[in-house]
Structure formats: structure tokens, C-alpha cells
Amino acid sequence: MIDIRNLEHRYPDGTFALKGINLVIPDGEFLLICGPNGSGKTTLIRHINGLLRPSRGSVLVDGLDTTRHEHEVMQRVGMVFQDADSHIVGETVWEDVAFGPENQGLAPGEVESRVLSALRTVGIEEMADRPCHLLSGGEKRRVAVAGVLAMLPHTLIFDEPFANLDFLGVQQILQQIVELHQAGHTIVVTTHDVEKVVAHVSRIAILFKGEIKALGPPEEVIPQLPLFHIRPPCFSLLGERMLSWLAD
Ligand code: ADP
Ligand code: MG
């Protein structure tokens, strides 16, 4: 469980990026954090895996304070960054995915089984020997997901996972996220593009100017999206039932 209490974040230049955030994310939840550009989404999720330290308040992951248990927190919470290129550290897909478990100091046999299992999970086993720099944007993002999975985190955070992907790329990454949720992982996704994921989430949080303005199940929160300059899903504008972006 993730327990965020009265979290404030002020960047060194004085920018007040988060104010009074209170948010509990229970195990097994699929939470969508949406908000316009600059609303604080990336800042908030960076607190959840301990990459940033609160200016005020606290973030607890399974009861562990992120400021005192950085290593354990990073073990439990994996983050797939918006920019897939920023993830890539290995020459080949295999080397890249092995980087995390190797850094955890695992024995070579254990590293190998983790890498294989992560590549299988995201369906890119056959790409193991490909050089990372030759991959498409969608493939790079799947490699990034595999790299995080290989560290076996319970919670997975995806920052703008659909940015710059075509329709098939969106479907593939969405399928992956949905399957990870079904396998029992806690999932947090940030986006301003609610439509692509909303059919699969348990709750939506609206972040606006560093504050949570709404939090609840999709049917409760969707009508409030336009108040915060977030485009509602087409189906809701048309008064239709919830639609998934995954092919039927
Ligand atoms: P989002 O992910 O919703 O677009 P961010 O969390 O990236 O929002 O940014 C929230 C606010 O903090 C914005 O006003 C942004 O300009 C500011 N900000 C983000 N990173 C930094 C930084 N390193 N230094 C100063 N201000 C920052
Ligand atoms: Mg962001």
C-alpha cells in the first residue's frame, strides 16, 4: 500500500509543484492520475518511488518512509519513464533488461531467469539480441517495461505510457499494463489522454496546479474532467457506454 500524507513539493527554483497531497493507493489498485501539462503528475509519481524527497509531508510504501528506505522502496515500486530512451542502458535488449537485476547483485543464473521471464511477459523474447538503438518507439517502451519487471516490483508506475505511440503501439502497451494488473500488480498510470486507459482503471485522480481536485471511480470523475481542462473520453461526450482501446 502507498500512503501519501500532506505531501508538498517545492523545486529549488521556488516552483511549488505539489500542495497538500493526501492519497492512499491500496494493493491491487489501477489508478489513473490525470491532469494538464505542468499539473504535477511526474513530480507526484517520482515521490512514490523515492526519487524525490518531500519538502513537507511523507510518502510511505508498505509502511516504509521513502526518505529512509530508498533501496527497499525502489525494489517495491518500479517506474517506466515517459522517455523510453532515458531507460536504455544496454547495447542489446538482453543486456538492457539484465542491467537492473545485475545491479541488485543477483547470481548470473537468477539474472538470466528474470530477464527471460520479463522478455516473455512483454512478448519480446525474439528481440533479445537486437541492438536497442534500432528499435521502434513502441518496442523501446516494451524493453523499458521488461527492464522494470526484471526487478520484480509489486507496484508499477507508467508516466505517459501512450505518448508518441501509434494505435497498435498504444494497444500493445495497454494490453501489457492490463495483464500486469490482472496478475496482481498495483498500477499507476499518468496521462492527460484519459480515453486510452479509462475503461480499465479502478479510480481516477485529477491533479490540477499541484492539488488533487477529484478522486474516485471513473463514472464519478469523468464529468469533472472539463472543469480542469482535461479532454473527456469520446464515449462520455456521446453519452455511450465505456469503451476500451483494446481490440475486441
Ligand atoms: P506534469 O508531469 O503534470 O506535466 P510536472 O510534475 O513535470 O508536471 O511539473 C509540475 C510543475 O513543476 C511545473 O510547473 C513544472 O514546470 C515544474 N517543474 C518540473 N520539474 C522541475 C524542476 N526540475 N525544476 C523546477 N520546476 C520544475
Ligand atoms: Mg509529466
Write the layout of secondary structure elements.
Elements: E1 2-10, E2 16-25, E3 30-34, H1 41-48, E4 56-61, E5 64-65, H2 70-76, E6 77-80, H3 93-103, H4 108-121, H5 137-149, E7 155-159, H6 167-182, E8 186-191, E9 203-208, E10 211-216, H7 218-221, H8 234-237
Parallel strand pairs: 3-8, 3-9, 6-7, 7-8
Antiparallel strand pairs: 1-2, 1-4, 4-5, 9-10
Magnesium ion binds at residues 41-42, 159.
How would you describe this protein?
It is a single chain. The chain is α/β, with parallel strands linked by helices and 248 residues long. The protein has one domain: Rossmann fold, CATH 3.40.50.300. 31% of the residues lie in helices and 24% in strands. It has eight helices and ten strands. The strands form two sheets. A six-stranded mixed beta sheet has the order 6-7-8-3-9-10, sandwiched between helices. The radius of gyration is 18 Å and the shape is globular. The chain binds adenosine-5'-diphosphate and magnesium ion. The site of adenosine-5'-diphosphate has 12 residues, from helix 1. The site of magnesium ion has 3 residues, from helix 1.
